[in-house]
Amino acid sequence: MFSHAIVRAPGKSLINGLSDSKDLGLPNYDNAIIQHTAYIEALKSCGVEVNVLEPCEQYPDSTFIEDVALVTPECVIITRPGAPTRRDEVSQIDYVLRKEFMNIEYIEAPGTIEAGDIMMVGSHYYIGLSDRTNVDGAEQAIKLLQKYGLTGSTVELNDVLHLKTGLSYLENNKLVVCGEFLSNPIFENYDFIEIPQEESYAANCIWVNEFVIIPSGYPISKGRISDAGFKIIEVDVSEFKKLDGGLSCLSLRY
């Protein structure tokens, strides 16, 4: 169960964020603020206290706060983002987390890792090897997790930006799965909730205290997750989709 979340409001520099989805156009700042506010309200409706941080205009992607830190029940790991323009974002979250957590660890060069590539299943952490997360970063993270009695393993990625672009763990052995992960034997023992390729964006959803928050506009995915026994909350995050960001990217939950 989660009791807290940290989010960072998007800045006006959002339009300069990293994106491989140029065909969707530039994000609209005013709409992004409206959608981000609705996202915060969705978290609150799940019983979570939300700490809203001020925008960091110098870092256009900083609203995607999940990538810069992994918060576990035993420790916090400050990441080293694979995108060079995001490296200095860690200084903006480090001081915030130091106010709440005792055990804080750091990924060091030449390792890179973004927490969008990390999926927690109980005390185990799957780490995707991607353009943003390299082997060195993953191995450092696994060693740090082991230091606190947790475990980790790596997953090779082929098509997606981050591991959680195509996977979401919803507790009770239920795994939302899309694309390349459908045939990956690493996940064969989970109960799949298959997301069709045409709704692949909905594969990034988040379980929060018996609710599942999903992006709005994906009726097949909504039906399948609901049929699996979950209560659904829909949130429009279409402005963040333009920057390759999803629901999990927008918060640190603990």
By DSSP (H or I, 4+ residues per run), the number of helices equals: 5
The chain-level mean pLDDT equals: 97
Class from helix and strand fractions: alpha/beta
Order of helices and strands: EHEEEHEEEHEEEEEEHEHE
First-residue to last-residue Cα separation: 8 Å
Shape: globular
Helix content: 10-25%
How many β-strand runs? 15
Kindly describe this structure.
By secondary structure, the chain is an alpha/beta fold. Helix content is 20%, strand content 24%. It has a 3-stranded mixed beta sheet, with helices on one face. The longest helix is centred in the first third of the chain and has 17 residues.
Descriptive key words:
24% strand, globular, 15 strands, alpha/beta, single chain, 254 residues, three-stranded mixed β-sheet, 5 helices
List the helices and strands and how they pair.
Layout: E1 4-8, H1 29-45, E2 49-53, E3 69-71, E4 76-78, H2 90-98, E5 104-106, E6 118-121, E7 124-129, H3 135-147, E8 151-156, E9 167-169, E10 174-177, E11 191-194, E12 206-208, E13 211-215, H4 219-227, E14 231-235, H5 238-241, E15 252-253
Parallel strand pairs: 1-2, 4-5, 7-8, 10-11, 13-14
Antiparallel strand pairs: 1-15, 3-4, 6-7, 9-10, 12-13
In short:
The chain has 254 residues and is α/β, with parallel strands linked by helices.
